[in-house]
Amino acid sequence: MENGHAGKHRVAVIGSGNWGSVASRLLASNTAKLPSFHDEVRMWVFEETLPTGEKLSESINQAHENCKYLPGIKLGTNVIADPDLESAVKDADMLVFVTPHQFVEGICKKLVGKLRPGVEAISLIKGMEVKMEGPCMISKLITDTLGINCCVLMGANIANEIAVEKFSEATIGYREDKEAANRWAKLFTTPYFLVAIVEDIEGVELCGTLKNVVAIAAGLVDGLDMGNNTKVSILLLKAF
Ligand SMILES: NC(=O)C1=CN([C@@H]2O[C@H](COP(=O)(O)OP(=O)(O)OC[C@H]3O[C@@H](n4cnc5c(N)ncnc54)[C@H](O)[C@@H]3O)[C@@H](O)[C@H]2O)C=CC1
Ligand SMILES: O=C(CO)COP(=O)(O)O
């Protein structure tokens, strides 16, 4: 993949909530070490004004911490918060989508015609867009709107645990382009975050999304004190 940056890939993260901040931290720890990536990770911030009156993006760039969505965790000095979407992505050839799913379509529409040629994307977003024509997976929404290849990364990945480097694993789903999937895996893998690749975007994305429906049902079982036998029925999808 020719990226026009003297061989170094540039990464931008679209989203800076709990998972977006943790993903940026993890990616920045790798870009600082791996020679094939530019150090800086640009993180698009949906701008908010904090109770102190300070802008969230300014606070992140000063403290290297997202005090609203990931308090108490240093992101790395090479994570740069940028409240301007166009500016955040303009130099990137690797784009990580990690916003709540309901904002993706609007974000993609703003990005049409603003991306570098050959840019690759990955979605960490759980959920789907439900339209009149039927449900649409988020990776397909990104590919269809922007005309770019989009892998997915999914797993049982509670962001706050990964933030404190508790072990976790995830799977990247890709279509045809194994080289791109391996590049994403290299960018995300750390000793505490193990990443595998599978040539099945839909399977990985659907499993990542639907497991949360099961998780809600399992939580209801706990809340209603229905017991472990009922929970197993839920996990085996027999009680639906
Ligand atoms: N938090 C977690 O442990 C995990 C989250 N995910 C997925 O990652 C995605 C992002 O989740 P979180 O980072 O947890 O979100 P979050 O709930 O922590 O943050 C919400 C984000 O949305 C932004 N936002 C608010 N209004 C907006 C608008 N109009 N347009 C664009 N952005 C807006 C907020 O500024 C904030 O950055 C979701 O799809 C979630 O399912 C996946 C795995 C783990
Ligand atoms: O899937 C998750 C953790 O594995 C979290 O997803 P939500 O943030 O949508 O609950």
Automatic annotation (TrEMBL):
Domain Glycerol-3-phosphate dehydrogenase NAD-dependent N-terminal: residue ranges: 11-178
Pfam families the UniProt entry points to: NAD_Gly3P_dh_C, NAD_Gly3P_dh_N
GO CC terms in record: cytosol
Superkingdom to which the source organism belongs: Eukaryota
Keywords from the named record: NAD, Oxidoreductase
SUPFAM superfamilies: 6-phosphogluconate dehydrogenase C-terminal domain-like, NAD(P)-binding Rossmann-fold domains
PROSITE patterns: NAD_G3PDH
EC nos: 1.1.1.8
Membrane-spanning parts: none
GO biological process: carbohydrate metabolic process; glycerol-3-phosphate catabolic process
Domain spans labelled Glycerol-3-phosphate dehydrogenase NAD-dependent C-terminal: 200-235
Catalytic reaction list: sn-glycerol 3-phosphate + NAD(+) = dihydroxyacetone phosphate + NADH + H(+)
Gene Ontology molecular function terms on file: glycerol-3-phosphate dehydrogenase (NAD+) activity; NAD binding; protein homodimerization activity
Membership in a protein family: Belongs to the NAD-dependent glycerol-3-phosphate dehydrogenase family.
Protein name in UniProt: Glycerol-3-phosphate dehydrogenase [NAD(+)]
Native organism: Aegilops tauschii subsp. strangulata (Goatgrass)
